[in-house]
Amino acid sequence: MKINLKNITALVLIYFLTAMSSYATKLPAYILETLKTDLPSASVRFDGLISLPDGTVYLPVLPSNPKKNPSGKIVSTYPANKKLSQRPDVVLFDSNFALLKVVKDKNGRPTVTDTKNIPFIVKTGLFPQDMLVPPGMIIPEDMKIMMGDLKIALQNSSVNDIFKGHVETKKNVENTKIVPIPYMSGRTLLITTLDSKLINVIPSDSTVPVFTLRLDNLPKFILPVCKDEYILVAAAGKTYIDVADVKQEVLAKKIDLGFQPAEIILNSDKTKAYVAPSDDQSIFVIDLKTMALAEKIKVKGYPKNITISADDKQIAYVDKNTGDIYTLALNETYLNSFVYNASNVSKLVVKGNNIFLLSRSEHNLQVVDTEIKDIIYKQPLAKKPVDMVLIDNKLYILCAANELDIFKLEDYSFEQAIKLPETGFYKKLVKVPDSSIFLITNVTDKKYFVYDYVKNSILQTVKTSVYINDLQLMNKRLK
Questions:
Q1: CA-atom Rg of the chain in angstroms
Q2: How far is Cα 226 from Cα 475, in angstroms, rounded to an integer?
Q3: How far is the C-alpha of 442 from the C-alpha of 468, rounded, in Å?
Q4: What's the number of domains the chain is made of?
Q5: In this predicted structure, which of 46-50, 64-68, 193-197, 455-459 has the lowest mean pLDDT?
Q6: Cis status of the peptide bond prior to 79, with omega within 30 of 0
Q7: Are residues 251 and 213 in contact, defined by beta-carbon separation less than 8 angstroms?
């Protein structure tokens, strides 16, 4: 039997490099420091891909034979003698770690520089095994070993579908441009409806979508994260969460939970997401730095209306099947405690030993003490309270029947009832960061209100071309 030494060497190298892939998503500290110094505007995606605002993309190459005690010094580039700030096609560091810039071939397809320009030591390295390279990427034949188990998506793959929607609204003879109030200038609204698979992307200075994001099914939730660099999306009937990369305009990752995600909340520093599935007695924890499932916490009941305390110490939720309310301690114990049974709860807020709940059928706010497990206070509200936000020790409670009620926590007193225009069914309060502004949505009218909760007044009424079921706010303009 003839043994092909070259093939055996290649197989051994692939095995060795693939075994290293668990380290792929975390770039070495010296690389991050060099990027910070030489390319301060660069961002590193959770899978290692490096991008710059001008569209430049670098692929990291992990070394097969890393040198010890690297300083992070660049030992060679192509073209030669270039600084990283000059964006060379190839960058080799003293540890044998390398960066390859994505360029276009004569047909406009993404690839890397000609193989003769790439040092051999780089060709023996490996791309991070969980990295999404640009769809349709062309890799030279003698560099295929660098791929390992990495798969390249086709140019017409579903990773591109979400950003290939189109505006489906008819042209309107009315002027669609508006002048947003200062706090809203330069922001973007992501709006879903009750009957469409599309996410409408509407700039704050417009009333119509500039484009749409297309999903496989009706959206369960959408949530911008990581300073609006990504959008987490869950669609009905799917067991995974899609991670949409806003800069690269691709679906960068699928986080498969094995169950259908239904609700999502973030902790205070926005590094973790807690996801409640619709069909399992659990809460999933997602690490937003790595965009990976960190933990699955088994809980009592099927969580609904999940909420987290401002100090990140506990989660509260309702069992959708029984109406039982539970708390979950977010420490090493994960103590899961029954608190109270309530009917038709539309919203929860947890603070200290108290849970504040809205009863949609009883039209009131109920304060439940988690230690004695009973109601200690009730406050009548306008009909059909649907949403509630805690700010500066006050609860702002939106009632579907055209009213915003304000409740003070320090003395359990009703402060004020603000009447809203008598039309439609009010649905949601959306806090505008770094401001005293709410956006108030109306699910049956094509409009939202810009409301100042310090002045207690509507600053602006904005008509839209679509009905609003859910609205998420991004703090920058898309496209």
A1: 26
A2: 11
A3: 7
A4: 2
A5: 64-68
A6: yes
A7: no
| Local confidence band at 16 (pLDDT 50, 70, 90 cut-offs) | very low
Contact residues for 137 (Cβ-Cβ < 8 A; gap 6+)? 102, 109, 110, 111, 152
461 φ, ψ to 5°?
A: -115, 120
Residues 259 and 408 in one domain: yes
* 417 touches 405 (CB < 8 A): yes
Both 231 and 128 in a single domain?
Answer: no
First to last CA, the chain: 61
Are 10 and 72 in the same domain? yes
> Based on the domain organization, do 143 and 167 belong to the same domain?
no
User: Taking a C-beta distance cutoff of 8 angstroms, is the pair 89, 117 a contact?
Assistant: yes
Contact status, residue 342 vs residue 357, Cβ threshold 8 Å: yes
- Residue 109 inside a domain? The answer is yes
Closest by Cα among 245, 313, 238, 322 to 274? 313
Other Cβ atoms closer than 10 A to 400: 20
Q: In which domain, by residue range, is 262 found?
A: 163-474
For 64-84, how does the pLDDT look when each residue is reduced to its tens digit (9 = 90+)?
Answer: 888 888 888 999 999 999 999
Q: Which two tokens stand for residue 38?
A: 């030489």
Separation in Å, CA 269 to CA 37, 80, 134, 469: 25, 43, 30, 27
167 lies in some domain: yes
**Residue 478 pLDDT > 80:** no
Residue 56 φ then ψ, to 5°? -65, 135
Its pTM surpasses 0.70 = yes
- CA proximity to 400, closest of 430, 438, 350, 363: 363
Q: For the chain, give the percent of residues with pLDDT over 70.
A: 92
Residue 62: the pLDDT is 93
pLDDT digits (tens, 9 = 90+) for 357-375: 999 999 999 999 999 999 9
In terms of phi and psi (left: phi > 0; alpha: psi -120 to 50; beta: otherwise), the region of 79 is beta
Query: What phi, psi does 407 have (nearest 5°)?
Result: -125, 130
User: What's the number of CA atoms in the CB half-sphere (13 Å) around residue 28?
Assistant: 22
